[in-house]
Amino acid sequence: MIVILVPGFWLGASSWREVGPALTAAGHTVRALTLPGLESTGADRAGIGVREHVGAVIAAIDAEDEPVALVGHSGGGPLAYAAADARPDRVARIVFVDAGPLASGASINDALPAAGADVPLPDWTAFEEAELAGLTAELRDRMRAEAVPEPVGVAREPIELSDERRRAIPATVICTSMPAAQVRELIAADHPYVRELAAMRDAAPVDLPTGHWPQFSRPAELGARIVAALGS
């Protein structure tokens, strides 16, 4: 299967480099994306918003001759879901990595502080301990060295969805900083945070205990979880 990897905020295709080998070894073809404005710290991010990022994922889907699987980490999860909404007949499965779908009209994270057109990676003190679990000082340095400011429009503009067929696409949620049991509890309580996830007809949460960035902290295990999800 062709697997399109959609990175979360501040990251590009290189963030998946230690995850891809497990997918390739299982016979999948990997397409890791770097979304517009994330090419380098010097890239022009003015005018880049959610539509441009969703459009880049749609373009990657359209470039293939067969249905694809979408894997979205963090903020890349809602982008992958919006692209699936635009191409529901071309997406065979969605895998959310410490992420989930957003309802139409919601923004990915409008609380992140911006500097003009940029949302820089915040200081580590801005994150909860559960998010940072497994991210050693060395890994934090490596990730920060790779990080590129996110376009502010991607964080703040609303996601737009229109095709109910998106909810029929099978999905797996790889839970890393929040246990799968807690996700199930939120669904049972009809929490707004997971309402769109609850509306999906076949969405299974699975655990990978670590922090918010398993592609750095436990990349081989993340690759194995994705392979298992694709085979389910």
TrEMBL record:
Give the protein's recorded name.
Answer: Alpha/beta hydrolase
* UniProt keyword Chloroplast, yes or no: no
Give the highest taxon in the source lineage.
Answer: Bacteria
Taxonomic lineage of this organism? Bacteria, Bacillati, Actinomycetota, Actinomycetes, Pseudonocardiales
Q: Report the leader peptide range.
A: none
- Per its record, what are the GO molecular function terms? hydrolase activity
Q: Per UniProt, which keywords does this protein have? A: Hydrolase
Where in the numbering of this chain does the AB hydrolase-1 domain appear?
3-222
Q: List the SUPFAM superfamilies.
A: alpha/beta-Hydrolases
Which InterPro entries does this one have?
AB_hydrolase_1, AB_hydrolase_fold, Sec-Metab_Biosynth_Hydrolase
